[in-house]
């Protein structure tokens, strides 16, 4: 099994391409369901924001997994695979884990250190979990990612010096206007991005705030919060006539501000300049509005170079964050390695319990005079023997799973206990060693195995007594291979 990531972001694709791959909250559940049903997909999560669309999956066949993701992206966008393939990036296993950690900590954001992405990734994971398309691996991965993101925000100053896209939009307005104190700002949309934008605008002392939204109750709620005036989308024309600045962030699939609408309105505005910033993906504002006199249009890609303050502090804090990412990635790798031996341990325990049950059945048949109390005592002590016999081997298995030659060690244990099939069925160490080394074919004899085990147990003085060269796997009348 492999962790596979395929996606595109603001670095690899312009906004006119990215908007084709945007997955709305309404469509997300069905999209996840479609993905999970595709060949080679065992688990799935989709992160879709204004700056990226990324598909994370666990796959048992990388080639088929990649084919399935590309097919899904083609369905989402309506584009042929050849048209968008140049914009895609694909990484697997440790590289995919590191990428997610960089995303959730804000290091991969357009504005380094921005904090909004953490909530977006968390919501993406919760949506996938609610759709029942995640399992053990992605659950652990995204939980660790969200936990890391929270620690970065509380333990470093990178978030304090960072800015979000909404802040960048407000910064852009300040570059155009020396002061916002006598300006009227219209914010279209009443979601989280709009809320953040209004927070920054209010801090800059904007004279008048207008909020337009499809759900007028939501517009009223937000307008009241910031001392503004609410408008329905049917009243948008009236709001546009008053505005000096328009910042739009809705989930609409169609343009909210069209060329024909603004061309007509500018006549009524007597050509008074209108400054428009589109921070939505897909875009809300028709880019051809820029052809209309005194209408200035900026989209999300124009914000990349807006904020240059606190660069040195962000770089310094980024070093700390990188260290935290590396530590978390190593912890996740250890978790994967430990999980890789779970099927093996479970199968060994199962075989041991079968031996114990068989011995108990034999004893009860040979000693029919045993009463209930004596039977329980015997049951307890035979179970204790099994547990004590397995305790050290299982502990060693967990430790050895973290070592570079883990695949060989697990193969030895599997051969010792006669459960080689479980390695083939679950392929656990191949999955674990994506973080360390490729699998090598095990070649061990009984004496070499004995030497290795005695060395790990801390006693070399009685190697040959512990396991003779003609060892046949039977000791004390109990066949170890039967465990």
Largest sheet: 6 strands, parallel
Number of helices: 21
Which parts are unreliable, with pLDDT below 50 for 5 consecutive residues or more?
Answer: 428-483
What percentage of the residues does DSSP assign to strands (E)? Answer: 5-15%
Oligomer: single chain
CATH topology (fold) name of the largest domain: Beta Polymerase, domain 2
Name the strands of the widest sheet in spatial order: 7-6-5-8-9-10
What's the overall average pLDDT, rounded? 82
Strand segment count = 12
Please identify the structural class as seen in this structure: alpha/beta
Q: How would you summarize this macromolecular structure in one to three sentences?
A:
The chain has 21 helices and twelve strands.
Features:
483 residues; 54% helix; six-stranded parallel β-sheet; four-stranded antiparallel β-sheet; Beta Polymerase, domain 2; Rossmann fold; alpha/beta; disordered C terminus; 12 strands; 3 domains
Task: Describe this entry's structure for a reader.
This protein has 483 residues and is of the alpha/beta class. It folds into three domains: 2-162 and 315-332, 2-Layer Sandwich (Beta Polymerase, domain 2), CATH 3.30.460; 168-303, NAD(P)-binding Rossmann-like Domain (Rossmann fold, 3-Layer(aba) Sandwich), CATH 3.40.50.720; 341-482, no CATH class. The protein contains 21 helices and twelve strands. It has helices at 15-18, 25-36, 62-77, 81-84, 94-104, 116-130, 136-155, 158-161, 165-176, 192-203, 216-225, 236-242, 259-268, 311-340, 342-366, 372-400, 406-417, 420-426, 428-432, 446-457, 463-466; strands spanning 2-9, 41-48, 52-59, 89-92, 184-188, 208-213, 229-232, 245-248, 274-278, 295-299, 474-475, 478-479. The chain has a six-stranded parallel beta sheet, sandwiched between helices. The protein has a four-stranded antiparallel beta sheet with strand order 2-3-1-4, sandwiched between helices. Strand 5, helix 10 (192-203) and strand 6 (208-213) form a beta-alpha-beta unit. Helix 6 packs antiparallel against helix 7 (136-155), helix 7 (136-155) runs antiparallel to helix 14 (311-340) and helix 9 packs across helix 10 (192-203). The longest helix has 30 residues, at 311-340. The protein starts with a strand and ends with a strand. The model is unreliable at 428-483 (pLDDT under 50). Its EC number is 1.2.1.70. Residues 321-418 form the Tetrapyrrole biosynthesis glutamyl-tRNA reductase dimerisation domain. This is Glutamyl-tRNA reductase.
């Amino acid at each position: 099994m492999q962790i596979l990531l395929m996606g595109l972001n603001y670095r690899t694709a312009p906004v006119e391409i990215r908007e084709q791959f945007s997955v709305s909250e309404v469509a997300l559940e069905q999209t996840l369901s479609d993905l999970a049903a595709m060949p080679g997909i065992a688990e799935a999560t989709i992160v879709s924001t204004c700056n990226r669309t990324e598909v994370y999956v666990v796959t048992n066949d990388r080639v088929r997994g990649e084919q399935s993701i590309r097919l899904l992206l083609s369905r989402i966008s309506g584009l042929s695979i050849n048209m968008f393939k140049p914009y895609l990036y694909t990484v697997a296993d440790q590289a995919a884990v590191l990428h997610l950690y960089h995303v959730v900590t804000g290091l991969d954001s357009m504005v380094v250190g921005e904090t909004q992405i953490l909530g977006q990734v968390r919501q993406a994971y919760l949506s996938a979990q609610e759709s029942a398309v995640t399992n053990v691996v992605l659950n652990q991965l995204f939980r660790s990612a969200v936990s890391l993101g929270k620690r970065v925000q509380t333990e470093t100053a990178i978030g304090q010096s960072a800015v979000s896209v909404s802040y960048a939009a407000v910064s852009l307005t300040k570059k155009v206007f020396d002061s916002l104190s006598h300006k009227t700002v219209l914010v279209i949309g009443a979601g989280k991005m709009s809320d953040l934008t209004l927070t920054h605008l209010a801090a800059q002392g904007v004279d008048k705030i207008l909020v337009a939204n499809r759900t007028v109750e939501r517009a009223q709620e937000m307008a009241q919060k910031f001392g503004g005036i609410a408008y329905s989308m049917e009243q948008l024309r009236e709001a546009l006539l008053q505005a000096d600045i328009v910042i739009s962030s809705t989930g609409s699939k169609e343009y909210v501000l069209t060329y024909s609408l603004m061309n007509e309105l500018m006549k009524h505005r007597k050509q008074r300049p209108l400054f428009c910033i589109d921070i939505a993906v897909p875009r809300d504002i028709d880019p051809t509005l820029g052809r209309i006199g005194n209408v200035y249009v900026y989209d999300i890609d124009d914000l990349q170079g807006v904020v240059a303050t606190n660069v040195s502090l962000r770089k310094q804090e980024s070093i700390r964050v990188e260290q935290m990412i590396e530590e978390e990635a190593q912890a996740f790798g250890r978790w994967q390695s430990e999980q890789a031996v779970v099927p093996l341990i479970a199968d060994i325990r199962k075989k041991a319990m079968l031996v114990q049950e068989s011995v108990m059945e034999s004893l009860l048949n040979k000693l029919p005079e045993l009463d209930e109390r004596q039977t329980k005592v015997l049951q307890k002590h035979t179970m204790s023997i099994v547990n004590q016999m397995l305790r050290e081997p299982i502990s060693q298995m967990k430790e050895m799973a973290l070592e570079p030659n883990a695949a060989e060690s697990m193969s030895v244990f599997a051969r010792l206990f006669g459960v080689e099939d479980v390695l083939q069925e679950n392929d656990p160490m191949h999955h674990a060693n994506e973080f360390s080394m490729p699998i090598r074919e095990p070649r061990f004899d009984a004496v070499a195995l004995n030497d290795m085990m005695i060395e790990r147990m801390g006693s070399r003085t009685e190697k040959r007594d512990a396991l003779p060269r003609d060892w046949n796997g039977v000791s004390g009348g109990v066949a170890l291979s039967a465990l």
